Amino acid sequence: MLDLGTYTAGGLPLQFPDEVADNRDITRFYRGWRPSYEPGTHRVYSNPSIGLFGYLAAESLGKPFLSLMEGKLLPELGLRKTYLNVPTAEIQSYAFGYNKAGKPVRVAPGALDAQAYGIKTTAADLLRFLEVNIDPSRLEPSLQKAVESMQIGYYRVGDMYQSLGWELYAWPTTLDTVLEGNSSDMALKPQPAVRLNPPEKPGDEILLNKTGSTGGFGAYAAFVPERRIGVVLLANRNFPIPARIKAAFTILKAVETIQEH
After folding, report:
1. What DSSP string runs through 195-250?
2. How far is the CA of 113 from the CAs of 16, 49, 141, 207, 240, in angstroms?
3. Which of 9, 130, 152, 235 gives a 20 to 30 Å CA spacing to 209?
4. How much is the average pLDDT of 5-17?
5. Rounded to 5°, angle at Cα 72 from 67 and 75
6. What is the pLDDT of residues 65-90, one digit of tens each?
7. Contacts of 133 (CB under 8 A, 6+ apart)
8. How many domains does the chain have?
């Protein structure tokens, strides 16, 4: 499970092959897949990896992933405008994305889409998510423990520490370091990974960040818990990742400067 949640399972691909369309195809895909690397030695960013992680987590609780997310986890986090399936009453508020041709699009369905990339949210709710990550003390104990488990590094990949979803850096850090950690090479190519045993943080103060992209949409979230600062960017156009990071980094540094004065 840890290898799936940190993209170190052995080289699962970025996306499912086009022919994987339903549950039988998914099962056939995993049964036929063979690792390219010894598990735990390389990080390869992968939706089939994080998607299987989410599926198995729900299976362990004996309930469907959708009902656990929308019926339990999202409400307990206080995310009241975050959905996997946007309800009819909220459709008018559901923004279209725009593809490279300027045509309106929605997030495309796909294999394990809910578990890997299918969540829809608002800037206010994503800020709320950052707030509970910055200070999880008001959450019930098991959820607080879960949030804290996502803020420690399980693998080191260059200057980046890979947690469950979040990617960590020692703070302060440089813009170039964060850009390198979110580069095309990091997203598309295998990277040697070093298991951290025991898990650890990259410093006394850390930056946690994560990009998100689907056709027609782009997102970025970054925060420094010890400084109680964070920023989220949501766009209904897939702006280049370096542009998102540069904008967010500028905002974080400006807020930090204000704090210091």
Report:
1. EEEEEE-SSSSEEEEEEEEETTEEEEEEEEGGGTEEEEEEESB---HHHHHHHHHH
2. 10, 12, 29, 27, 22
3. 9
4. 97
5. 120
6. 999 999 999 999 999 999 999 999 99
7. 147, 150, 151, 208, 223, 225
8. 1
Residue 42 CB-density burial (10 A; 0-12 exposed, 13-18 middle, 19+ buried): buried
Instruction: Name the DSSP letter for residue 22.
Output: S
Residue 133 has pLDDT above 90, yes or no: yes
Joined tokens for residue 212: 């998100």
The rounded distance, in Å, linking the Cα atoms of 29 and 6 is 20
Q: Are strands 194-200 and 153-157 parallel, antiparallel or unpaired?
A: antiparallel
Q: Residue 240 belongs to a domain with what CATH number? A: 3.40.710.10
For residue 229, give its domain range.
Answer: 2-260
Task: Calculate the CA 115 to chain-centre distance.
Answer: 11
Mean pLDDT in residue range 139-166:
97
Mean pLDDT across 33-50: 97
| pLDDT single digits (tens) 88-120 | 999 999 999 999 999 999 998 899 999 999 999
- 226 touches 247 (CB < 8 A): no
Q: How far is CA 78 from CA 46, 148, 164, 218, in A?
A: 28, 17, 20, 23
Tokens (6 digits) for 166 = 């979040």
